Amino acid sequence: MSFPITRPRRLRRGAAIRRLVRETDLTAGRLIYPLFVMHGRGVRREIPSMPGCAQLSVDMLVDEAKSAQDAGVLGVILFGLPSRKDPRGGEAYDPEGIIPQAIHALKRDIPDLQVWADVCLCGYTDHGHCGVLEYGEVDDDATLPLLARASVAYGKAGADAVAPSDMMDGRVGAIRAALDGARLTHVPIVSYAAKYASSLYAPFRDAAESAARFGDRKSYQMDPGNAEEALREVALDLEEGADIVMVKPALPYLDVISRVKDEFGVPVAAYNVSGEYAMVKAAAERGWIDGDAVAAEILLSIRRAGADIIVTYFAKDAARILKEFAG
Hints:
With 327 residues, the chain is an alpha/beta fold. It has helices at 15-21, 58-70, 98-109, 140-157, 171-181, 202-208, 228-240, 254-264, 274-285, 291-305, 315-325, and strands at 31-38, 44-46, 54-57, 75-81, 114-119, 133-134, 137-138, 161-164, 190-195, 244-248, 268-272, 309-312.
C-alpha cells in the first residue's frame, strides 16, 4: 500500500517502539576489550594517540579488567610489552613472559572473565615484523613453530582462547596441532583470518611498541582491494581448525564482514581498530561530533554487517554508551 495508509514513521515515534522493532541489537556482552600489559607494578602509562587507553602493569591490568567487567563486558584480549626484544621474539613464547603472567593474574582474580591472548611476534622482535627474518624477509615456515609455542604457553597459563594475528600461511594448523598435542584441545582459536595491510593501525603500534624498523607488512597482510581473497583466507583457516574468524579492520571492510558471515555461517569477530577509535576521540575532543553517539553507531554498523563479536577500545564504556543511544 502507499501513503497515507502506510506510514513507516508510526514505528519510530517513541523510544519503546523503536526498541521493539529494532532489527539489530548490540550489547556490551558482545564486545572484547583490548588491553596492553607491561612489566612493573603500579604502572599506568597513557597512550597519547589513543585517549583513555594505557599501557598497564599486571596489577593495574586486573583493576582495568574488573572495571570493564562491571560495565558488562565479558572478555579482554591481551597484547604484551616485553622486558626486552630480540630477533626471534623470545618473550612471546616464554612460559614466564608477560602474557602468561597477566593471564594467571586475571584468571585468579576474575575467573569468569573471558581472557583471549593475541599471538604474534611483532611486539617482541627487535625488527618489529610479525615473523622470523631470513635474508631480510619474513620466513613464514620458520615462524610457525614459534607461534605454536606461544599458543601453548598461553593455553597452559589459562587463556580462554588464542588469537593468531600474524597472517603467516598455515599458522592455524600448526597452532591447532600444538594445542592438541599439549592436551589443550579445549582452547579455541580465534583467527585473524582476513587482516588487511591498513593505514589504521598506527596508534596501536604506538601502544604495543610494535612498529616495523624497516619496510612494511604488505607481503603478509592482505591488499585492501581484495574481497574474494578474504573468503579464501577464511576457508583455509576454517579447514585448519579455526573456531572463530576475524576481519580486521572493521569499519572500512563491512562488506567483507557481511560476505564472510553469509558465506560460512560461523562465529565472526571484527576488530574496530585503533585508528578508527582515535579518529572518533580526536573529533569529539574538538567538539566536531558527539563521540558517544558516533561510537555507538559505528559498533552497531559492525554488528549489523554480521559480526557476532566486536573487539573495540570503546568496550569499557559500551554499556553506558549503548544504553544512552538505545532510544
